[in-house]
Amino acid sequence: MKKSLGATIHAMPSPVWVVGSYDNKGEPNIMTAAWGGICCSSPPCIAISLQKSRLTYANILEHNAFTISIPSKLYAMEADYIGIVSGKNTDKFSVTGLTPVKSDVVNAPYVKEFPIVIECTLLQTVDIGLHTQFIGEIVDVKADEGVLGEKGVPAIEKVNPIICSASDRKYYALGQYLGEAYALGLKLSEEKIS
C-alpha cells in the first residue's frame, strides 16, 4: 500500500546543472540549479526554474542568455559550493578554481572544466509562483571530445554527470546500464506476439 506524502517535490532524479550568466557589470556568475529539463525538441529548448531573489534571475533577464554546464562527478564538491553561496558577494570561479569561458554564440559564460555546455538564448519566461521558469532555445552544445561516444554524441558513462535526490538532499552518480531507449520495451510486444 502506498502512503500519501502530500503535494511535495519528490520527483527523482533532478539534474545538477551549473547555470552561467553575466551580471550588470559584465562579471561572470554561476549557480547550481536542479529544477530543469529538456522542454521542446523543435526548436530545441531547455527549461530551468529559478527564484526571483537569485542573482542569476536578474542576469538572464538583462542579457537574454544563459549557459548550462554539466559537471562530471569529479566536480561534485564544486557544484555543491556553487549552489550554497550567492554570487552577489562571492566570486565563485575564484573560490572553486574553475575557469569562466565567454561563449562565442550567446552573451553568457560557461565552465571550462565541465564536459558538456549548453548555450541558450532566452525564449520565454513563465511565472509559476516561488519560481520562474526560464525557457532557453539551445543555440549550441559543446562537448569535450573525450566524452563523445561511437555515434559522435555525448555518452552518459563518459560524462559521469551528477544527479540529485531533492527529497533527501543527496547527490548520486549514475547507476548501471539497463538497455536501449525505445527498444527495451519492444520485448513486451514481441512476447505478446509469440
UniProtKB/TrEMBL annotation:
Sequence intervals crossing the membrane: none
Keywords: Flavoprotein
Gene3D superfamilies assigned: Electron Transport, Fmn-binding Protein, Chain A
The keyword Transmembrane helix is assigned to this record: no
Gene Ontology molecular function terms on file: FMN binding; oxidoreductase activity, acting on the CH-NH group of donors, NAD or NADP as acceptor
Claim: Flavoprotein is one of the keywords in the record: yes
SMART domains: Flavin_Reduct (SM00903)
Domain Flavin reductase like: 12-153
Cofactors: FMN
Record family assignment: Belongs to the flavoredoxin family.
PANTHER family: FLAVOREDOXIN, FLAVOREDOXIN-RELATED-RELATED
UniProt-recorded name of the protein: Flavin reductase family protein
